[in-house]
Design a protein that fits this description.
Elements lengths: L2 H11 L9 H39 L5 H29 L4 E7 L6 E6 L3 E2 L5 E5 L6 H5 L3 E7 L3 E16 L2 E7 L6 H8 L3 H5 L8 H7 L7 E5 L5 H15 L9 E5 L2 H10 L9 E4 H7 L11 E2 L8 H5 L2 H18 L5 E2 L6 E3 L1 H10 L5 H20 L8 H11 L12 H14 L10 E2 L1 H15 L9 E4 L7 H10 L4 E6 L15 H7 L7 E4 L1 E2 L4 H11 L10 E2 L8 E4 L3 H17 L4 E6 L2 H11 L18 E6 L8 E7 L10 H11 L2 E9 L5 H4 L11 H12 L42 H6 L7 E2 L4 E2 L16 H5 L19 H4 L11 E6 L4 E5 L2 E9 L2 E8 L21 E4 L3 E5 L3 E6 L5 E5 L4 E4 L6 E4 L5 E5 L8 E4 L6 E3 L4 E3 L11 E4 L3 E5 L5 E6 L3 E7 L3 E7 L4 H12 L1 H4 L1
Parallel strand pairs: 2-4, 8-16, 8-17, 9-10, 9-15, 11-14, 15-16, 18-19, 20-24, 21-22, 21-23, 23-24
Antiparallel strand pairs: 1-2, 1-6, 3-4, 5-6, 6-7, 12-13, 25-26, 27-28, 28-29, 29-30, 30-45, 31-32, 32-33, 33-34, 34-35, 36-37, 37-44, 38-39, 38-41, 40-43, 41-42, 42-45, 43-44
């Protein structure tokens, strides 16, 4: 069928009739849509299998030199990748087909229509959508509007008007319709309360169905302008931020890729939680880091982790208030202006021979003044170029004559007039000069050599960008900052200058500013900085969905002790147990009461529980004592992954998190004095609880809980204060603020536009092959194509933006030429699910049949292939494996040979082979070929998986898998881009290789005292997610090759790694 005929057919027959409203009719619809979803899944699975078979046929039928066959192979591979994405979406659609429904009448249609709304779109065989994706333009009607006339916007086309007749929300469990509700708001109070009453892990799966109007407006705001959101505790700030990323990637796929996002959080636990949730929203490969890590990233080659380290801001560091302030940033700006003024010559330039003026003072000053975003070195280089150009015009003029010697001398004289082309100073030395200048002004702050806190790092990054940089690197297109109130204006001033051409989504709650002295206590300065051209980009989330009424009342009473203005909280009416406050006689009784409460909650089925302590010292003590009685989850602030279980945390590390039950441990008057900063700290602790909140103390309870606030004391509301201030200072901007923020929900009830399409004169013609209706239901970008099942996003083509570069890529680019890892995947990227699932295979028999020992190695042959074990140091054994018989082992890039022979022994019994040096032992069960590594004392360090120790796929795209039995309690990390970086790998899948950089051996290290150096020259993935299997994956080679390093501790393991990998690789 030609495109025009298809378009006519869709226009003529694409109206979806309104289904019945009774339970029987809804059950019939559910059965029908489940049938469509199942058919789509079956069809997609069959197509995927056919593609796989076609691919294998091509591999077996054609040689590697057949160009036509290679082109067919690449095309088949691309289709396979696309179909894998289809499979993921089809499975989601089959599991939960939809959660909502809209009935409406389009102003241009003759009858009413109806569509269901789901996590992904579902279309029938005729490509007619029966369920639309929650991110599609039309789906916004479900979230944003009351019944009646309303509008929605299609990007690039304009605004459409419909008459919304009905919104219905469904509860579907195991393909059965449990209940449904008609409502003017999404998930009315009855259904919303039912969702919120569940445990946290259950609620996460229902979030898309319960997004509220004010949350949806923020999610769907354009990413091309800055947005600041003030959200009260429990308003869903973090959730909204994650859904916003998913929405942007769906609707702005041509402008934004996952690599274009940075997520900035205040601590690693919050970031680990975000990492665990994003894949469920179809978001992969988004970089996440703390603010300190971001500024280190922006120092590029100047940051040397061998000498420099990040230090936290001390609780008693009073100077942090000064260093984190906006005034401190302005002082830094002034210092740089003065430094530039003295470093760059301003005097006019004349040729001495004839007095010809090349550049005058005014033009030099104007250039310096008119380019505030160009670094000092960049200005120097450009001024030198301008001067050389003017000189060239002068000496080449028609009526002037200079001898060749004079020309040469003039060019030499003025080549570096304004300065050399590279700044030779030290950023760190310049920062010390700044601190000295501040001390002269009476603003002395302590300085620790080579140890830098957040605001030191912000200043250093600003100095790098403002003074030194010449070739700017595009870091990100959109930055999302969560818990934004925890960072002072010094950080934001530096960030806004350093990340050029970037837009921001900034989420926070100034009532939760636990860094009262230097965090944000209001948004005014940040609004002036970030929203100067977009005053309507400030929003409010007032409703709290987290706490029960009882917990919310308890937390509000704490907040009322403060002498500061706050934003109002509107809690959802959900009742629960009263907050209990228990007095104990001593520490032992407090711990016993804590254990008792936790056991009670666990018995009731509570899955996430937190014991919140004042500081890390107290948390460590409670964790040690409580761990003797109860199984505790990892609570290390740097490595903990926020999942089910019991966590013991200092209050600072609970920001952005929530738990089914919370126990506040020993909130004494000493820990929480009746001061404003501690009011906010305790308020944060109390508002982490979803369902249960208990306090235990020793009779010294803080007045913030023990003493009620006088009923006469009224809380000052920031919303009212700021509204009055802005009414005095500025007119209301056109477009206003986001509704549900400054104006509340009522502001959304604006006069409806005239029925019919708006801006139709400006709207481009529909894309070929699409009807207007298809454009309203999905994104109309030309990249999104109909598969017959739902919208699919094909892979990006050549010509797309360069990927964001990691901090050391710039440094590596300037190193002497060496072998480069050809992969496009950076360290830390999340692999596609199609890669994470190991290839299917027939039975793999690794049982040993032949053993052959030489002076340097031992070879063990099975039906599946040959395994070679080579002791290269007393603490190091190299493991290599090749599939099939008769193949020769490759030396590879890291072919380490010891200077002196290693003393080792080998012996074999009926079922066991043992290889030993003086420092380690390696044993293999001959029946399955799996290796076990022991230290010299006989302690088991690591085992390969007995059922399947290894797997290799050969052919044009070879790949290997080595399966390990990593224990749940084992802390496994990968060595990152910077030599001091360790990326925690538990319950994760990440690329641990370094695509696009000089070859460097990936390294895994364990707290059990060993390391694995993976001798692979392309992609390396470490996966510890049980769903996919625990393994190390490599591609680009048909050989498994790794070094087992028995270091005992990290420093010795790293020493062995550097020895094996070579200094150039391990640096």
């Amino acid at each position: 069928m030609c495109k025009d005929e298809k378009k006519k057919k869709m226009k003529k027959g694409s109206v979806r009739p309104v289904p019945g409203l009774s339970r029987e009719a809804e059950e019939r619809q559910l059965k029908e849509i489940i049938g469509i979803a199942q058919a789509n899944l079956n069809r997609t699975e069959a197509y995927a299998r056919a593609l796989s078979e076609e691919y294998h046929d091509l591999v077996e039928s054609y040689g590697p030199k057949d160009k036509e066959a290679l082109a067919m192979l690449h095309n088949t591979q691309a289709q396979m990748r696309e179909r894998q994405r289809d499979l993921i979406r089809c499975r989601k659609a089959r599991k939960m087909p939809y959660f909502g429904r809209i009935d409406f009448k389009d102003s241009g249609a003759s009858q009413e229509e109806s569509y269901y709304v789901g996590r992904v779109g579902i279309s029938d065989e005729a490509s007619e959508p029966v369920v639309i994706d929650w991110r599609a333009p039309l789906a916004s009607v479900y979230y944003e509007n009351n019944t009646g006339t309303c509008t929605y916007t299609v990007k690039g086309e304009g605004v459409y008007s419909v008459d919304l007749k009905r919104k219905r929300t469904y509860e579907i469990v195991n393909d059965q319709l449990k209940d449904f509700f008609d409502s003017d708001v999404v998930a009315n109070d009855e259904l919303l309360t039912k969702y919120l009453a569940r445990n946290k892990t259950a609620v996460l799966g229902e979030i898309i169905a319960t997004i509220q109007e004010e949350q949806n407006e923020i999610i769907r705001r354009t990413p091309k302008r800055n947005l600041i959101v003030q959200g009260v505790a429990g308003s869903g700030k973090t959730t909204v931020a994650m859904h916003r990323i998913s929405y942007i990637l769906y609707n702005y796929e041509e402008e934004f890729r996952p690599q274009d996002f940075y997520i900035i959080g205040s601590n690693r636990i919050l970031l680990n939680y975000i990492t665990s949730v994003l894949p469920d929203l179809d978001v992969y490969g988004v970089a996440q880091m703390t603010m300190e890590q971001l500024f280190v990233r922006l120092l590029y080659e100047d940051w040397d982790p061998r000498f420099h380290r990040i230090r936290p801001i001390g609780k008693k560091d009073e100077t942090a208030c000064m260093k984190g302030s906006y005034g401190w940033f302005h002082d830094l700006e002034d210092f740089c202006r003065e430094y530039e003024k003295t470093a760059v010559p301003h005097e006019e330039i004349r040729i001495e021979k004839n007095g010809v003026l090349l550049m005058d003072e005014a033009s030099i000053a104007a250039y310096l003044r008119d380019n505030p975003r160009v670094s000092m070195q960049g200005k120097i280089n450009m001024l030198n170029e301008i001067l050389q150009s003017k000189l060239e015009n002068e000496v080449s003029g028609k009526y002037v004559s200079y001898s060749p010697e004079e020309k040469k001398e003039l060019k030499r004289l003025y080549r570096w007039h304004f300065g050399k082309d590279v700044w030779k100073g030290s950023i760190f030395g310049l920062y010390r000069e700044f601190l000295a200048s501040q001390e002269e002004k009476g603003k002395k702050v302590p300085f620790t050599e080579n140890a830098f806190d957040l605001y030191d790092l912000a200043a250093l990054a600003y100095l790098y960008k403002r003074i030194k940089e010449t070739d700017g690197i595009r870091e990100a297109s959109h930055v999302i900052i969560d818990e934004a109130q925890d960072f002072g204006m010094m950080a934001y001033g530096a960030l806004e200058y350093c990340l050029r051409g970037c837009t921001y989504t900034i989420m926070g709650d100034v009532s939760q500013n636990i860094h009262y002295g230097y965090g944000l206590n209001d948004w005014e300065d940040l609004r002036k900085l970030m929203l100067s051209t977009n005053p309507g980009g400030f929003g409010l989330l007032k409703k709290s969905y987290r706490n029960t009424v009882e917990i919310s009342h308890f937390a509000t009473e704490i907040l009322r002790h403060g002498n500061f203005a706050v934003y109002p909280v509107e809690p959802i009416s959900r009742h629960g147990n009263q907050v209990t406050v228990t007095k104990c006689e001593n520490e032992d009784e407090m711990l016993a009461e804590t254990e008792k409460n936790i056991r009670g909650w666990m018995k009731e089925g509570r899955e996430t529980i937190a014991v919140i302590c004042r500081d890390e010292e107290e948390a460590a003590m409670v964790s040690a004592r409580l761990g003797e009685k109860l199984p505790l989850a990892d609570s290390d602030p740097e490595t903990a992954s926020f999942t089910q279980g019991i966590m013991v945390l200092p209050v600072e590390y609970t920001k952005g998190l929530e738990f089914d039950g919370v126990l506040l441990y020993h909130p004494s008057a000493e820990h929480y004095p009746a001061e404003d900063r501690y009011v906010k700290l305790l308020y944060v602790a109390a508002t982490r609880a979803l369902h249960e909140l208990t306090v235990v103390h020793q009779g010294d309870l803080t007045d913030l809980i023990a003493k009620p606030v006088s009923e006469e004391k009224k809380m000052q509301l920031l919303e009212q204060e700021n509204q009055m201030r802005r009414e005095k200072k500025m007119p209301t901007p056109s477009g206003g603020n986001i509704s549900g923020l400054s104006g509340g929900r009522d502001s959304a009830k604006r006069p409806a536009p005239q029925p019919g399409r708006q801006d139709s004169a400006k709207r481009p013609d529909p894309q070929p092959g699409w009807s207007d209706r298809a454009g309203k239901l999905t994104d109309r970008t030309t990249d999104r194509k109909s598969t017959g099942d739902f919208a699919v996003q094909p892979g990006r083509q050549s010509g797309e933006r360069e990927p964001v570069r990691c901090p050391e890529e710039r440094r590596d680019a300037e190193k002497p030429a060496g072998q480069i890892n050809p992969s496009s995947h950076r360290f830390g990227e999340f692999p596609d699910e199609s890669i994470l699932r190991p290839k299917g295979h027939s039975r793999i028999d690794c049982s040993v049949r032949i053993i052959k020992k030489s002076k340097t190695c031992i070879d063990l042959t099975s039906r599946y292939g040959a395994l070679r074990l080579t002791p290269v140091e007393p603490e190091v054994i190299r493991v290599q494996f090749l599939k099939g018989p008769g193949n020769a082992f490759r030396d590879g890039y890291w072919n380490y040979r010891p200077k002196t022979p290693v003393n080792w022994t080998a012996k074999a019994g009926k079922t066991l082979v043992e290889v030993a040096t003086e420092k380690l032992k390696l044993r293999m069960d001959k029946r399955n070929g799996a290796l076990q590594f022991y230290d010299s004392g006989g302690k088991l360090l690591l085992s390969e998986k007995p059922e399947l120790p290894r797997q290799i796929e050969t052919g044009i795209h070879p790949a290997t898998w080595t399966y390990f039995d990593w224990a749940k309690s084992e802390k496994l990390s990968a060595r990152g881009n910077l030599s001091g970086d360790l990326e925690r790998m538990n319950q994760k899948a990440r690329y641990i290789s370094f695509g696009g950089r000089n070859l460097r051996m990936p390294l895994l290290v364990s707290d059990c005292g060993y390391g694995l150096g993976i001798a692979a020259e392309k992609n390396v993935i470490c996966c510890t997610i049980p769903t996919y299997g625990k393994y190390v994956y490599t591609d680009g080679s048909e050989q498994i090759d790794y070094y087992f390093l028995c270091g005992g501790d990290y420093s010795h393991t790293l020493e062995l790694y550097r020895k094996i990998a070579g200094n150039s690789s391990a640096s």
